[in-house]
Amino acid sequence: MVQGLETYSADFGDGIEFTLVAGERALYVDGDLQAARRWFDDAYRMAQGENNAPAMARAALGLGGVWVHEHRTTVEAGLIRMRQRHALSAIDPRSTLALRLRARLAGEEDYRTAEHAAIIKIVAEARRAGDTQALAEALSLAHHCLLAPEHGMLRADLAEELVSTAGSTGRRGDLLMGLLWQTVDRFLAADPHAERALEELRSRLDLHDNRAVGFVVSAIDVMLAVRTGRFGHAENLANVAAERGAVAGDVDTTGWYGGQLGTIRWYQGRIAELVPVLLEMVNSPMLSAVDNSYFAALAVASAAKGDKRLAAGMLARLRGRDLADLPRSSSWLSTMYGIVEAAHLLDDAETSAEAYQLLAPFARLPMIVSLGVSCFGSTRHALGVASLTTGDLDRAVDHLRGAVQDNLALGHWPAAVLSRWRLGQALARRNGPTDDAAQEMAQATEEAAELGMVLPSVPESRVPIKSKDVGKCRRHGRHWQIDLNGRTVLVDHSVGMRHLATLIANPGCEIRATDLAAGPGMIDGETETGQPVLDEQAKRTYKQRLAQLQAEIDELESQHDLGRTEALRAERDWLVDELAAATGMSGRVRRFTGSEERARIAVGKAIRRALARITEADPVIGDELRTTVQTGLRCCYRPADR
Prior knowledge:
This is MalT-like TPR region domain-containing protein. By secondary structure, the chain is mainly alpha-helical.
């Protein structure tokens, strides 16, 4: 066990040994990476000046830190490797220090090349040597090199062995690292007890903080807040985590904060806002050498913003010669998530097909960034979106149904909403205008509004809409569902949508603007003396429903069923608004003034506003309707051959 600094201060003053002990305490006990680097840098210079090879080795080892790849810039990383190799050459190659230095150098090289063979070999050597400190360090380094999704079982074995070995090293930091890796592994595997492991780790930190481990725990807290859909709270926690990372001296602080903010903005529908920041970040030397997630994030953000050239360029950079060449790092799954979403927004079926093949073996895993920094839900969501883009609709529906369930099991409400939204799109494209598709999309829209999410728009189709196809328009409560050539869009009710629905229901028929303005019950051929907005039958139906709603509301209020009461009140208020718009103060049916010109202007404006809303939600359907709907004194929906 490392003795208190006050004891060493008395024995060694400000000499090399005191400086080394101070660095080791900062690193292995306090997790203060920043302070440890300063102590070890001083110790190395002092040991070099005195030609003290063992002290140089201890200092060079400590300069590596507790994580792999702590030094990011070419100059800084090169300097540390040079010191470690020089120290290794100056000591007994059979010594414990030599074994520990070789483990560090092997881990660094494996990580940069997305490999693990060399560090696993060192782990086996440390086991044979029986040196617990060397083994603990090698196990942790190996675990860090094995964060790709295919290595889950091997990681779990390494973490379990590290926890066991920590009991013999006498270093508190080894136990914390073992517990941390076990916690991370459980989140990466979607283990339902992952949060139990997190609480055990948190209780250890409460006894004595470790800044390096505590920073990771604070990052996991951000991920969990995003899963609950509390975006404001998650953003506040991300700021707190960034402050902790800066105090600890963790080089991943900026990258993790950017990733967390990007996740929040994606689910909020505000990812396009981050394009300027992402343009600066993608080439930052502070990012990991094997981290490509920022390129994927920029592809999604620029596609969402409408900058297709930049988005396509980022996808091309990621694909390189072969998408399979991307290194399988701790950010690989999140990178693939971004690739799939960007390809969907760009309607890039080729990239989607490649991504599907690579992701298929990991269908049941959550797409978690690094050590639990962020989460994009089930991998089955990405498989479903990729299938939707390639047009394999049966497969898309199967994956997206599974993704909804997986995300509910994770407690990731925003991801579940997004998967449900995509499921509705897949059902609509496969089956046409069905109640199942409308129900999924309506539920996703409602849940998104509750969470403060803005759902992504439906991308342009690779297959252009055939002009001979006739659209269909149906009402669902306060929304209208428009189906056209396998595409579906859901928009809010408005007067213009009511006019548009009438036109779509009567393709090729010219309808007078005055008749559209008059609404249901219009009588063909009436003069300009005015048309009733509602006929008597419609009025009776509305009033009967109002009476029924009021009775149901009274009954539910007596039962204190506030949830269902609120829903019925919303429908009642909508009916009251409809009647108020159609009747005068005395309750008589209101009639239009009979001015054809005023009707032409009012109806034309209302239809154009409705078309603008449709285009915003789905540019393809919107553009098709703009070219086939005519307004004027007589309005008409004219698909080809009509």
